[in-house]
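Aim 2, interim progress. The first record below pairs a target sequence with its structure tokens.
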Amino acid sequence: MDATTENGELSVTIDFTVPFYDLDAIQMVWHGNYVKYMENAREAFGDKYHFEYLHIFNSGYTAPVVDMHIKYRNSARIGDKLAIKITYVPTKAAKMVFRYIVTRPADNAVIIEAETTQLFVSRTGTFETSNPDFVVEWKKRWNIPLPKSSTK
């Protein structure tokens, strides 16, 4: 796993080899498995930048994906070595936005480009309209701008 914080960008790149069980009937990675690859990248991001799902949960919240866009550019096949880069997109709102790019370094092919948005939801099921305290602290730690009207 490689992590960067260049120019304030928080990103992680993980390497992955396509296994047999991720293929469809025509011997390509089934399109839905890319969502799993993106989740693996989000977990690596959380580990690196101390924003794990358990930390979110133990702070009294969940963070469901509420929006996802994937552009399929090329296909991957069994044994392909892929690089999955996730980048946090700073936002002042009470949400997390991530961009992903999955590439095959052997030929520099872009396999997918994607973006997800996750909102913070309290354990009572309420969507947060302002950043919870633990998010404010995390953003401060990584120098991510906060809303000017935030009192947290």
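The second target in this work package is listed in the same format:
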Amino acid sequence: MNKLFELRAKLPPWQSTVLGVLGLLFIIVLWWALAEYFSFTKTIDPDRLELLDGEAPPQSEEKVYPILPTPMMVVRSFPDLLVKDDLKGNVLHSIWLNIRGYFWAVVISIPLGFLIGLIPLFRGMFSKPVDALRYLPLTALTGLFIIWFGIEDEMKIAFLAFGILVYLLPVVVQRIDEVQDVYLKTVFTLGATSWQTVKSVYLPSVLSKLIDDIRVLTAISWTYIIIAELLNRQGGIGALIYLKARQGQIPKVFALLIVIVLIGFLQDRLFVYLDKRLFPFKYYKTTLTALREIRVGLLILFAIMAVAILLQIYLPEFSSTLSMSIWTVALAAVALMLFGEFKIRSSTTESA
């Protein structure tokens, strides 16, 4: 019990679970109480009353929630979103936009960041302009992106990629500066070349920290996706939120916000998993078996993602033709990863 108020004390797993459930219940009860507090009862317009056998129905008043809907109202709005508003299709559209934006941001920012961070010529020329990019008001640039890319998905992807890049590029340079000198002196003593130093020291050190930075940026990326989808409102969860807010369907707006939070939580867990499997030295003191199978599966999935993105840009007529083959290879990669996870669990159980 004393640990509950001890500074930075670590709670047992069961206590963390119980407190997490209690915290969620507290938020729901507080939400419900605030919704009821701001609600009011109003008289129904007589023209809306339906007569039953020539008499008005017994209830001529209704309760209105103008600011906050109750949790049950939000829950009841999900079936309507799924059936009438194509929630699944809009969510998948936004996720695919997010993936493509992240792809181009990472592909551009990591090589450029290494050039600026490692080569003094490029650092002297571009380090200050790169740092200044973070102060650009991205929402004010939407007009320029419409002029350059139109109002279709290409504009949204470019806007998202640029929004991530202006934050990720300086971070790459910063992570390069944070590489400890002791590792550099060690490989220099061993006679490593510049390329071997980059491969054996800079890449593992920078990427192991950069995955945490990318994980944090996933939350910001959803803000940019919503902004981009508001411009033409032709699909995506951002456009759906805008339409439902304009129509005064507040429970559906809250339901969509909850969907975004859930997606963000799943993305966060996915990055935690990738971090543990790609950089296990951060979490484990011993070498894990079967990491090769998992890494090969992840490499195949990353390659499939890159191929699908490039095909959709340069060969859109073949993207639908190859979709079945791509899905087959992706399922095989997932099966290989599951096999690796099974081997890890088996070895852990045996050692225990």
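The chain has a mean pLDDT of 85. This observation will shape the mutagenesis plan for the next reporting period.
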